């Protein structure tokens, strides 16, 4: 079983990005390959106040990131912001990921490219 930790530009527009990250998570969980992975996508939970206050949200998100990064097959999926880059929060998560995992375990795409990738490749 492979953990996939998904991050995106939460701060840019929380409502929009909560919907987008939820859509990506749903596409993975509904795919023919869903039995191969464990999906972790904390930013929608943060937006919906699922962790409580900001400190708890940050703690739980980073705990999940560290846990996922400790598996040999784990991947970090980065949904780039509207300009094709990272937010400050994403940069921090990516740098933490790199402490435990090699750069090739990081996959980056813009939202529309992730949707196409998941529809074309994951739904085989």
Provide an overview of this structure:
The chain is an alpha/beta fold. 51% of the residues lie in helices and 17% in strands. It has five helices and four strands, in the order βαβααβαβα. The chain has a four-stranded parallel sheet, sandwiched between helices. Helix 1 packs parallel to helix 5 and helix 3 runs parallel beside helix 4 (88-100). It is globular and about 35 Å long. The mean pLDDT is 90.
Any descriptors?
124 residues, alpha/beta, single chain
Overview in brief:
The protein is α/β, with parallel strands linked by helices and 124 residues long.
Question: What is the secondary structure topology, with strand pairs?
Answer:
Blueprint: E1 2-7, H1 14-29, E2 37-40, H2 42-47, H3 54-69, E3 75-80, H4 88-100, E4 106-110, H5 111-122
Parallel strand pairs: 1-2, 1-3, 3-4
Helix pairs in contact: 1-5, 3-4
């Amino acid at each position: 079983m492979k953990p996939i930790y998904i991050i995106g530009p939460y701060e840019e527009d929380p409502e929009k990005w909560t919907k987008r990250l939820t859509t990506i998570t749903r596409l993975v969980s509904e795919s023919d390959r869903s039995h191969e992975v464990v999906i972790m996508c904390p930013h929608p939970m943060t937006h919906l106040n699922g962790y409580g206050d900001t400190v708890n949200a940050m703690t739980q998100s980073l705990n999940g990131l560290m846990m996922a990064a400790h598996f040999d097959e784990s991947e970090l999926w980065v949904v780039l912001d509207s300009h094709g880059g990272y937010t400050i929060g994403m940069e921090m998560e990516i740098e933490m990921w790199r402490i435990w995992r090699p750069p090739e375990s990081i996959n980056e795409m813009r939202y529309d490219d992730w949707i196409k990738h998941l529809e074309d490749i994951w739904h085989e």
